[in-house]
Amino acid sequence: MMSPNPNNDPVVTPHNDLNLSSASDFERIAEDGVEILCEPAHVKGLKRRDIASGEASDVAGLIRFVIGPDGQVTPDLLQKLPGRGLWVKASRDSLDLAVKKNLFARAAKRQVKANADLSDTVCHLLRRRCLDLLGMARREGEIISGFEKVMAAIRSGKAAWIIEATDSADDGRSKILALARAVGSGASVSPKVCGLFSNDELSLALGLENAVHLALVNGKRIRRWKHEVTRLSGFVPLVPPGWNYTEGAQATAPD
Protein backbone atom coordinates (compact mmCIF):
# COMPACT_ATOMS: atom_id res chain seq x y z
CA MET A 1 0.00 0.00 0.00
CA MET A 2 1.23 3.43 -0.86
CA SER A 3 2.14 5.65 2.05
CA PRO A 4 0.23 8.92 2.49
CA ASN A 5 1.61 11.85 0.56
CA PRO A 6 2.97 14.38 3.08
CA ASN A 7 1.56 17.38 1.21
CA ASN A 8 -1.88 15.76 0.95
CA ASP A 9 -1.85 15.69 -2.83
CA PRO A 10 -3.94 12.92 -4.40
CA VAL A 11 -2.83 9.38 -3.57
CA VAL A 12 -3.95 7.05 -6.34
CA THR A 13 -3.79 3.29 -6.11
CA PRO A 14 -3.58 1.20 -9.29
CA HIS A 15 -6.87 0.04 -10.76
CA ASN A 16 -7.28 -2.05 -13.89
CA ASP A 17 -10.34 -0.13 -15.06
CA LEU A 18 -8.92 3.34 -14.45
CA ASN A 19 -6.29 4.98 -16.66
CA LEU A 20 -5.17 8.01 -14.71
CA SER A 21 -2.06 8.48 -16.82
CA SER A 22 -4.18 10.02 -19.55
CA ALA A 23 -6.72 11.83 -17.37
CA SER A 24 -6.64 14.39 -14.59
CA ASP A 25 -7.39 13.42 -11.01
CA PHE A 26 -10.06 16.08 -11.24
CA GLU A 27 -13.02 16.03 -13.54
CA ARG A 28 -15.77 18.35 -14.61
CA ILE A 29 -19.09 17.07 -13.39
CA ALA A 30 -22.54 18.59 -13.76
CA GLU A 31 -24.51 18.74 -10.54
CA ASP A 32 -27.95 20.33 -10.54
CA GLY A 33 -27.19 21.98 -13.88
CA VAL A 34 -24.03 23.75 -12.73
CA GLU A 35 -20.54 22.81 -13.87
CA ILE A 36 -18.18 22.62 -10.90
CA LEU A 37 -14.59 21.56 -10.45
CA CYS A 38 -14.88 18.57 -8.18
CA GLU A 39 -12.71 15.72 -6.93
CA PRO A 40 -14.91 12.78 -7.94
CA ALA A 41 -15.83 10.69 -4.90
CA HIS A 42 -16.97 7.83 -7.13
CA VAL A 43 -13.56 7.18 -8.76
CA LYS A 44 -12.14 4.01 -7.30
CA GLY A 45 -8.55 4.31 -6.10
CA LEU A 46 -8.58 8.08 -5.52
CA LYS A 47 -7.37 8.61 -1.98
CA ARG A 48 -6.45 11.42 0.36
CA ARG A 49 -4.58 11.50 3.63
CA ASP A 50 -6.80 11.75 6.69
CA ILE A 51 -4.99 14.25 8.92
CA ALA A 52 -6.45 12.64 12.06
CA SER A 53 -5.17 9.11 11.44
CA GLY A 54 -2.41 9.80 8.92
CA GLU A 55 -3.81 7.04 6.71
CA ALA A 56 -4.70 7.27 3.03
CA SER A 57 -8.45 6.75 2.63
CA ASP A 58 -10.97 6.82 -0.19
CA VAL A 59 -12.30 10.35 -0.62
CA ALA A 60 -15.87 9.04 -0.47
CA GLY A 61 -15.48 8.60 3.28
CA LEU A 62 -13.75 11.91 3.98
CA ILE A 63 -14.70 15.53 4.50
CA ARG A 64 -12.64 18.20 2.74
CA PHE A 65 -11.72 21.42 4.53
CA VAL A 66 -9.96 24.54 3.32
CA ILE A 67 -8.37 27.43 5.18
CA GLY A 68 -10.06 30.76 4.48
CA PRO A 69 -8.24 34.08 4.08
CA ASP A 70 -8.88 34.78 7.76
CA GLY A 71 -7.31 31.47 8.78
CA GLN A 72 -10.68 29.86 9.54
CA VAL A 73 -11.11 26.13 8.90
CA THR A 74 -14.06 25.84 6.49
CA PRO A 75 -15.91 22.64 5.48
CA ASP A 76 -16.12 22.04 1.74
CA LEU A 77 -18.70 19.29 1.28
CA LEU A 78 -18.90 19.69 -2.49
CA GLN A 79 -15.11 19.74 -2.88
CA LYS A 80 -15.07 22.85 -5.07
CA LEU A 81 -13.64 25.64 -2.89
CA PRO A 82 -10.23 26.95 -4.01
CA GLY A 83 -7.15 26.22 -2.01
CA ARG A 84 -5.32 23.22 -0.66
CA GLY A 85 -7.64 20.62 0.81
CA LEU A 86 -7.24 19.14 4.28
CA TRP A 87 -9.15 15.91 4.71
CA VAL A 88 -10.66 14.21 7.75
CA LYS A 89 -12.62 10.98 8.04
CA ALA A 90 -16.36 11.61 8.07
CA SER A 91 -16.82 10.87 11.75
CA ARG A 92 -17.39 12.99 14.82
CA ASP A 93 -14.57 11.30 16.72
CA SER A 94 -12.00 11.94 13.99
CA LEU A 95 -13.00 15.56 13.50
CA ASP A 96 -13.10 16.27 17.24
CA LEU A 97 -9.61 14.78 17.51
CA ALA A 98 -8.34 16.96 14.66
CA VAL A 99 -9.66 20.06 16.42
CA LYS A 100 -8.48 19.06 19.89
CA LYS A 101 -4.96 18.14 18.76
CA ASN A 102 -4.65 21.20 16.49
CA LEU A 103 -4.03 18.91 13.52
CA PHE A 104 -5.36 21.39 10.98
CA ALA A 105 -2.57 23.82 11.90
CA ARG A 106 0.01 21.07 11.78
CA ALA A 107 -1.15 19.91 8.33
CA ALA A 108 -1.43 23.46 6.98
CA LYS A 109 1.89 24.48 8.57
CA ARG A 110 0.38 27.75 9.75
CA GLN A 111 -1.84 29.13 12.46
CA VAL A 112 -5.50 28.38 11.80
CA LYS A 113 -8.78 28.76 13.65
CA ALA A 114 -10.88 25.62 14.09
CA ASN A 115 -14.05 26.12 16.12
CA ALA A 116 -14.69 23.65 18.94
CA ASP A 117 -18.15 22.95 17.49
CA LEU A 118 -16.83 22.14 14.00
CA SER A 119 -18.37 18.65 14.15
CA ASP A 120 -21.79 20.15 14.84
CA THR A 121 -21.33 22.52 11.91
CA VAL A 122 -20.45 19.68 9.54
CA CYS A 123 -23.37 17.61 10.82
CA HIS A 124 -25.74 20.51 10.18
CA LEU A 125 -24.39 21.04 6.66
CA LEU A 126 -24.69 17.34 5.82
CA ARG A 127 -28.26 17.28 7.14
CA ARG A 128 -29.08 20.27 4.95
CA ARG A 129 -27.43 18.60 1.98
CA CYS A 130 -29.43 15.40 2.46
CA LEU A 131 -32.71 17.31 2.72
CA ASP A 132 -31.88 19.22 -0.46
CA LEU A 133 -31.23 15.94 -2.28
CA LEU A 134 -34.57 14.57 -1.14
CA GLY A 135 -36.22 17.70 -2.51
CA MET A 136 -34.51 17.18 -5.86
CA ALA A 137 -35.50 13.51 -5.89
CA ARG A 138 -39.13 14.41 -5.25
CA ARG A 139 -39.18 16.88 -8.14
CA GLU A 140 -37.72 14.16 -10.36
CA GLY A 141 -40.38 11.62 -9.36
CA GLU A 142 -38.10 9.45 -7.25
CA ILE A 143 -39.91 9.94 -3.91
CA ILE A 144 -42.99 7.97 -2.89
CA SER A 145 -45.01 9.42 -0.01
CA GLY A 146 -47.86 8.17 2.14
CA PHE A 147 -48.26 5.09 4.30
CA GLU A 148 -50.02 2.81 1.81
CA LYS A 149 -47.83 3.81 -1.14
CA VAL A 150 -44.64 3.27 0.88
CA MET A 151 -45.88 -0.16 2.03
CA ALA A 152 -46.57 -1.07 -1.61
CA ALA A 153 -43.12 0.16 -2.67
CA ILE A 154 -41.49 -2.05 -0.03
CA ARG A 155 -43.50 -5.10 -1.09
CA SER A 156 -42.60 -4.57 -4.76
CA GLY A 157 -38.91 -4.07 -4.00
CA LYS A 158 -38.90 -0.52 -5.38
CA ALA A 159 -37.98 1.16 -2.09
CA ALA A 160 -34.21 1.59 -1.83
CA TRP A 161 -34.48 3.83 1.24
CA ILE A 162 -37.24 4.43 3.75
CA ILE A 163 -37.27 7.94 5.20
CA GLU A 164 -39.44 8.13 8.31
CA ALA A 165 -40.11 11.38 10.14
CA THR A 166 -38.64 11.35 13.65
CA ASP A 167 -42.03 12.37 15.00
CA SER A 168 -44.04 9.81 13.03
CA ALA A 169 -46.65 7.82 14.94
CA ASP A 170 -45.36 4.58 16.47
CA ASP A 171 -48.10 2.43 14.93
CA GLY A 172 -47.55 3.40 11.30
CA ARG A 173 -43.78 3.47 11.61
CA SER A 174 -43.67 0.06 13.30
CA LYS A 175 -45.69 -1.52 10.48
CA ILE A 176 -43.43 -0.03 7.81
CA LEU A 177 -40.24 -1.12 9.56
CA ALA A 178 -41.63 -4.59 10.26
CA LEU A 179 -42.42 -5.03 6.57
CA ALA A 180 -38.94 -3.81 5.63
CA ARG A 181 -37.39 -6.36 7.98
CA ALA A 182 -39.56 -9.11 6.58
CA VAL A 183 -38.56 -8.23 3.02
CA GLY A 184 -34.91 -8.28 4.05
CA SER A 185 -35.23 -11.74 5.57
CA GLY A 186 -36.27 -13.14 2.19
CA ALA A 187 -34.56 -13.10 -1.18
CA SER A 188 -34.67 -9.34 -1.51
CA VAL A 189 -32.39 -6.82 0.18
CA SER A 190 -34.12 -4.84 2.90
CA PRO A 191 -34.39 -1.09 2.32
CA LYS A 192 -32.05 1.20 4.20
CA VAL A 193 -33.72 3.41 6.79
CA CYS A 194 -33.19 7.05 7.70
CA GLY A 195 -34.99 8.58 10.67
CA LEU A 196 -33.13 11.84 11.16
CA PHE A 197 -35.59 14.46 10.01
CA SER A 198 -38.82 15.79 11.48
CA ASN A 199 -42.15 16.04 9.68
CA ASP A 200 -41.67 19.81 9.39
CA GLU A 201 -38.15 19.46 7.93
CA LEU A 202 -39.24 16.87 5.38
CA SER A 203 -42.40 18.74 4.43
CA LEU A 204 -40.46 21.95 3.82
CA ALA A 205 -37.70 20.25 1.84
CA LEU A 206 -40.09 18.26 -0.35
CA GLY A 207 -42.82 20.86 -0.70
CA LEU A 208 -45.41 18.51 0.78
CA GLU A 209 -48.09 19.29 3.32
CA ASN A 210 -47.42 16.32 5.58
CA ALA A 211 -44.26 14.30 4.83
CA VAL A 212 -44.17 11.46 7.34
CA HIS A 213 -43.67 8.17 5.50
CA LEU A 214 -41.40 8.34 2.43
CA ALA A 215 -39.58 5.94 0.15
CA LEU A 216 -36.67 6.83 -2.13
CA VAL A 217 -36.46 4.69 -5.26
CA ASN A 218 -33.45 4.08 -7.46
CA GLY A 219 -32.85 6.96 -9.82
CA LYS A 220 -30.67 9.95 -10.61
CA ARG A 221 -30.17 11.04 -6.99
CA ILE A 222 -29.74 7.71 -5.24
CA ARG A 223 -25.95 7.49 -5.49
CA ARG A 224 -25.38 11.05 -4.27
CA TRP A 225 -27.94 10.57 -1.48
CA LYS A 226 -26.21 7.36 -0.37
CA HIS A 227 -22.85 9.11 -0.39
CA GLU A 228 -24.02 12.07 1.67
CA VAL A 229 -26.17 10.14 4.14
CA THR A 230 -23.33 7.67 4.71
CA ARG A 231 -21.02 10.55 5.60
CA LEU A 232 -23.73 11.95 7.86
CA SER A 233 -23.96 8.61 9.67
CA GLY A 234 -20.47 9.26 11.03
CA PHE A 235 -21.85 12.18 13.03
CA VAL A 236 -25.28 10.95 14.10
CA PRO A 237 -27.06 7.55 14.01
CA LEU A 238 -29.39 7.32 11.02
CA VAL A 239 -31.97 5.34 12.99
CA PRO A 240 -33.02 6.39 16.50
CA PRO A 241 -32.15 3.61 19.00
CA GLY A 242 -35.75 3.44 20.19
CA TRP A 243 -36.92 2.27 16.77
CA ASN A 244 -35.07 -1.03 17.18
CA TYR A 245 -34.56 -1.53 13.45
CA THR A 246 -32.03 -4.06 12.21
CA GLU A 247 -31.77 -4.71 8.48
CA GLY A 248 -32.55 -8.25 7.49
CA ALA A 249 -33.76 -9.31 10.95
CA GLN A 250 -36.40 -12.01 10.98
CA ALA A 251 -39.87 -10.54 11.16
CA THR A 252 -43.43 -11.26 10.15
CA ALA A 253 -44.88 -8.90 7.59
CA PRO A 254 -47.88 -6.98 8.93
CA ASP A 255 -51.29 -7.37 7.33
Put the structure in a nutshell.
This protein has 255 residues and is α+β, with helices and mostly antiparallel strands.
The strand order across the widest sheet is 9-12-10-11
Strand content: 15-25%
- Mean of pLDDT: 81
- How does the major sheet shape up? 4 strands, mixed
Number of helices: 7
Q: Low-confidence stretches at least 5 residues in length (pLDDT < 50)? A: 1-43, 248-255
Q: What's the SSE pattern?
A: EEEEEEEEHHHEHEHEHEH
Strand segment count: 12
Backbone CA Rg: 20 Å
Helix content: 25-40%
Structural class: alpha+beta
Query: What is the first-to-last residue Cα distance?
Result: 52 Å
GO molecular function: DNA binding
Pfam families: YlxR
Protein name: DNA-binding protein
Domain YlxR: 48-116
Structural features, described:
- The protein has 255 residues and is of the alpha+beta class.
- The chain is 32% helix and 19% strand.
- It has 7 helices and 12 strands.
- A 4-stranded mixed β-sheet has the order 9-12-10-11. Strands 1-4-5 form a 3-stranded antiparallel β-sheet, with no helix packed on it.
- A hairpin with a 5-residue loop joins strand 6 (62-67) and strand 7 (73-75).
- Helix 3 crosses helix 6, helix 3 (118-139) runs antiparallel to helix 7 and helix 4 (147-156) packs parallel to helix 5.
